[in-house]
Amino acid sequence: MDTSDDESTGVGGAAENKKPPAKAAGKGKAAGKGKAAAGLKASAKESSLLKQKSPAEFFAENKNIAGFDNPGKSLYTTMRELVENALDSSESISELPDIEITIEEITKSKFNTMIGLVDRERVDEALYDDFESEKAREKRLAKEARFQETQAKNAALGKKVKDAPAVRGKGRGEAAFFKVTCKDNGRGMPHDDIPNMLGRVLSGTKYGLRQTRGKFGLGAKMALIWSKMSTGLPIEIKSSMKGQNYTSFCRLDIDIHKNVPHVHLHEKRENKTHWHGAEIQVIIEGNWTTHRSKILHYMRQMAVITPYAQFLFRFLSDAADKNLTIKFARRTDVMPPIPLQTKHHPSAVDLLLIKRLIAETTKQNLLQFLQHEFVNISKSHAERLIGEMGPDFGPKMTVKSLTSQQLVRIHQLFRQAKFDDPSGNCLSPAGEYNLRLGIIKELHPDMVATHASSPQVFEGHPFIVEAGISIGGKDVKHGLNIFRFANRIPLLFEQGADVITRTALKRINWSSYKINQQQDKIGVFVSIVSTKIPFKGTGKEYIGDDITEISSAVKDIY
Amino acid sequence: MDTSDDESTGVGGAAENKKPPAKAAGKGKAAGKGKAAAGLKASAKESSLLKQKSPAEFFAENKNIAGFDNPGKSLYTTMRELVENALDSSESISELPDIEITIEEITKSKFNTMIGLVDRERVDEALYDDFESEKAREKRLAKEARFQETQAKNAALGKKVKDAPAVRGKGRGEAAFFKVTCKDNGRGMPHDDIPNMLGRVLSGTKYGLRQTRGKFGLGAKMALIWSKMSTGLPIEIKSSMKGQNYTSFCRLDIDIHKNVPHVHLHEKRENKTHWHGAEIQVIIEGNWTTHRSKILHYMRQMAVITPYAQFLFRFLSDAADKNLTIKFARRTDVMPPIPLQTKHHPSAVDLLLIKRLIAETTKQNLLQFLQHEFVNISKSHAERLIGEMGPDFGPKMTVKSLTSQQLVRIHQLFRQAKFDDPSGNCLSPAGEYNLRLGIIKELHPDMVATHASSPQVFEGHPFIVEAGISIGGKDVKHGLNIFRFANRIPLLFEQGADVITRTALKRINWSSYKINQQQDKIGVFVSIVSTKIPFKGTGKEYIGDDITEISSAVKDIY
User: Fold this and answer.
1) Fewer Cβ neighbours under 10 Å: the N or C end of chain A?
2) DSSP 8-state secondary structure symbol assigned to residue A504
């Protein structure tokens, strides 16, 4: 693509080119000037107003980054974040997880009662979005009549009969509210830490290098932010740690601007039952209709990959026929080992990380630092590496006195040197036994086969892939049913671009296994665990297909 | 999916089920206990160590969120963030943009000289990743010989000849460094604001409601964070505002832990040439080989959508044959109007936003607040809305005294009430004239047609879609060539899932336009502008296909 001759290139020869674009240009210019002046004013004012945002504000405004794209997705994400925290907590004390999730629908009038707002009847009907003026009503009825006429004609002529055109609304309507409660039998939280653990974005205890379900330390806090945005109601936490003779109760919200917890109530209550664990309750806007199926799929897939846990899922509403109680029973007492915190692999560190490790180390000299703060560097290996760094370096030199140039030298050597692959010992795959059991208990297939890879490595991070294939079963569609897991959580969205889906669909020759890809009921289960799951980042590269207005506008323009 | 009978269900009847999983279970249990104990210790220590991260640390550790997935993508993203800031800056003062981008490759030895590090020859060869032991060498040669023998046999038998197996490396190798410089003729930055504008994450001037190229206020700061991670070198800024008799010069990096700028040098220098604008220079690790084509596509597409700008793109290296100079010439002086800051639409606000608007408003009473802080609420409309809110509300009530219940009432009414759609006046589409011109100047097609939609709306945000179709041209592949733009920036990644691509590929019947979708050289151009581009958020739903180790591990497991 050499466009260096672009200067001298004339415009193309098509008829379109010759229309003088005078009108557009003129309009553009005039508009440009008028608006430019206004714009300038605004911008001049602005440039002296450099604004600083708190991380809580940032995530409130970009909540889609954390999976809170819309009310339905927010309900789903709230539920799964609470469930994943609960599992982590129970497992961290080697307790077989026992988790209860309740989603309770709250009508607007019940919601208003909760917050002490008197319900008002509509007075000025014409103010409302669903108001239909007399004229609009006549128009609609006439249109419907015309449509039915055409239908009758078409039917008479044997033509295909179309569906009635959908009434186009703005899709806003009434908000639906839900109380989401998740209770576990886990570690609980230290009484004094509760406000900061839930009311401060980017604070957390899971920041070490370890296979974890969570990734960003955002989960429950995002649920709290979403409740502030949609209902304004605080979050409620009950918690008790093993052996505590009290239960902590805390009601709090978050000061978004300062990113600090705002505590309404924080007290110790009697703990008669010796319960330990945490119960978190949040009231948010949601959409059960659109995300019911995702939520149930999530629960079922979680039950597949976590057969040693017991889940009780309930949906409660005023309409008894919508209510649900699903118990996913425990099928084994064999729990995978707890993932262990591990040290960094020398080939996976950057300059910033080396600096941080030096700032945090308790080791005095370079030799000890290399030997103890990384995996796969033995003492003799460390000595050879120091020798290779050059005459400015020595094993006894104080590690905290290294200059930035010397850090670059170490970084460069780490990049080029050979190190053994990190071991997978710190990882906690589901295990073939658990995976098989989970598939059998939830799908009841005719046949199931599983396999686990040995630990492998990318960018210094170990990973293990486990897979299962099932044929037949209950509630399984014909064709491929793909179940994806990363660090033992189900992945349900953006399936199309995922490495697992692509591999299953395109790179596997199913017929060589005598499997009919279209007709058999095939379950494909792939689980990846790692100290770093390479989730694909969102840049600004992607416009979703799910905003119907834009989708149809793009279509309509042709 | 009713699994409430799960308790009583026996396991399936397949042969696989009957294998006693004793070994796996036993191993799991034992490992579980041993590790659990170790894990407990680590966790107990941890729970008292609630850590707080700064936003700079968060983005350093999750840099893929901002498009810094790997060195190649980081080079691309650094370049595009600088170009987009430059365009915004020139346009903000109604200056026809004149932008120079230089990417200069820096060899490791040049880089080391720059930072004052003495180059060292390798001494202990066996330490390095590319070292091949005598034994490994023999093994490889034997393998190659066997392969050639098989090849010869196959060829003799008329069988298909396979490619030689690729040598599997770890894909780390030497880092490549690049100096990226971007110079514009824009507004420049106020001298005293420079450190905070570049050395503090989540600070910015573009946070109002307006069509902007940037979205997160992260761009240049992420480039700085990436330079800290990969080279440790500071960023350099030259800037001058119109009429200033000096140029600001600033060299700074960022204290990641505190999220504050760390200024090395900040001074005023003589400005003899009366230049105004900004020049930013950053030295980072990158990968030109893998992302060269994306970078050039980006520049070309930016030239299509911005024909009133002049771009000079240069790639410089020690290898003269790799060097590039591409000039994308200005083709028109007609600039689209500057996007204007606008007020929020009442149907697009949440509770938090209403609170913030109340905190920030200068208006005294509710009537003035409704009338002046939102679009599409006239005085009489505001009066009717206040009447509808109920007897507790009145036009004269002090807006800052509203209780949280009253805010919920306002929010509920905003959700249900009908408001006119926001106008598209604040938007700045490229314009059909510019889009056509851009297509012609960069592609030289045989035919081009363009169309613009009238403003439409989603969730209270106006948007405009413009589209173009071209047939034939220079450097255009056969079939569909899709060019996507959002707020006048090209989108190059994650094409497959994008609404534009999906629409073009699946929902348009090309043959009805007498276009052959396979054989013709079709350019499809779609540009969307809005005060809110609904970029699809990535949660934890997606594992990329581009990490070959995982991709092949998933494949190999079958």
Assistant:
1) N
2) I
CA distance B399 to B358: 7
Of all helices (H) and strands (E), which one includes residue B240? Answer: strand B235-240
Residue B337 forms beta bridges with which residues? none
Instruction: Specify the pairing of strand A246-255 against strand A260-270.
Output: antiparallel
Distance between CA A194 and CA A251 in Å, rounded? 10
Residue pair A114/A108 in contact (Cβ under 8 Å)? The answer is: no
Whether residue A337 and residue B34 make contact (CB cut-off 8 A), yes or no, is yes
By the CB < 8 Å criterion, does A378 face chain B? Answer: no
Contact A329 B6 (CB under 8 A): yes
- Return the amino acid letter for A484: R
Q: How far apart are CA B176 and CA B105, in angstroms?
A: 7
Residue length of chain B = 558
Beta strand ranges found along B73-138 (DSSP E) = 98-106
Output the CA torsion sign for B224, B226, B228, B232: negative
Determine the Cα–Cα distance for residues B349 and B506; give it in Å rounded to an integer: 34
DSSP letters, A282-293, are: EEEEE-HHHHHH
A553 with B526: Cβ contact below 8 A: no
Residue of A nearest to B332 (CA): A25
In contact, B431 and B525? CB cutoff 8 Å: no
ipTM (interface pTM): 0.81
Per-residue pLDDT of chain A (558 residues), as tens digits, is: 443 433 333 333 333 333 333 333 333 333 333 333 333 333 333 344 678 888 899 889 888 778 888 899 999 999 999 999 999 999 999 999 999 999 999 998 899 988 888 888 888 988 998 888 788 888 888 888 888 888 788 777 776 655 555 444 444 556 799 999 999 999 999 999 999 999 988 887 766 788 888 655 678 899 999 999 999 999 999 999 998 999 999 999 999 999 999 999 999 999 889 999 999 999 999 999 999 999 999 999 999 999 999 999 999 999 889 999 999 999 999 999 989 889 999 988 999 999 999 999 999 999 999 999 999 999 999 999 999 999 999 999 999 999 999 999 999 999 889 999 888 899 999 999 999 999 999 999 999 998 888 787 777 788 888 888 899 998 889 988 888 888 898 888 766 656 666 666 666 677 777 778 778 899 988 888 888 876 654 322 333 333 344 333 334 433
Contact B410, B389 (CB under 8 A): yes
